[in-house]
Amino acid sequence: MSFRPFSLLLLAVACWQLPALAQQATSAASPVWPPVAEAAAPSQGEVLFAVTCGRCHRAGGMGTGILSRRPGMLAGGLLEQREDLIVPFVQTVVRRGIGNMPRISRGEVSDPELALIATYLAKGKK
What we know:
126 residues
């Protein structure tokens, strides 16, 4: 076999260059294609809304269906898409109930949790 010495020489050169190639590969910043945007983590209010209110007030929920039939409801009944909510209104409706919505007690949703949910729905408006 006359190729054996050549093969051994090629293997030796490859092994000698391998650490340098690995260093180049790890040090060069290779862009990810297509660029991937990092998703923002949901806020505590959003998570609480999804867990405690989402069954009725997200897409397909009974509360969303009832609210969507109201005249002038531009958000299709989805509370998360409304722009006219303020924190005190959300808190009052949750604690007292309104229309078909029952009141929600402090045992079900604490005051600090309700404040987070109301701030999320009001998009920070006081």
